[in-house]
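Quarterly update from the structural biology core.
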Amino acid sequence: MNRWLWVLGIGCVLVASAQAQPLPPEVQRRVDTIFSKMVDRWIVQIDRWWHDGQHEHLINMTYFLISVDPHHIEAYENAGWLLWSSNRDDEAVALYERGIRNNPDAYDMYYELGQYYYLRKKDYAKAREYLERAIQYPCQWFVWNTLGHVYARLGERQKAIETWQELLRRFPMMPLNQMEAVRKNLRDLMTREETPATGESGQP
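Predicted structure, tokenized:
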């Protein structure tokens, strides 16, 4: 562990120095190359800790990583999940919010926080707030799918139907099993008088 702290310390010094004043192009290229290789090594080590179950080391490394690369989306995602699954919810939310501040024009962090409120807290109104922000940016099919489930859980039947219809229109190449689940949800909602609070089929 000490060896990695030394590497991290050197990396932070390099990045801080590079940000403090402009460097000649050739020197900047060398710094960028060193930093890129260093980040690659960090990611390999993080993966090892993940598989070894050393999650505290992984979380600590993540904080170092995003301090020098605030746009590394996967780092926020992995550490956030580890934090709330360890009942460290306040830290998880703070990390996701930090990710949003550093990446305001990407869907990922809005989705992660919306997913957190949907799955972890069962706070569907809060989940809707973040998922509706997520779909304002280019995103994956599962973001729309989760939002459809959230609308259904809130009893907003027409919005759920429209969201899933839009999902099918936007993502004709989504996984076939998920497409069939979405179609089943649509059939179920469109044949009901009212939308129940729970019980929708398919994966969130």
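Residues 122-204 form a domain with the Serine Threonine Protein Phosphatase 5, Tetratricopeptide repeat fold (CATH 1.25.40).
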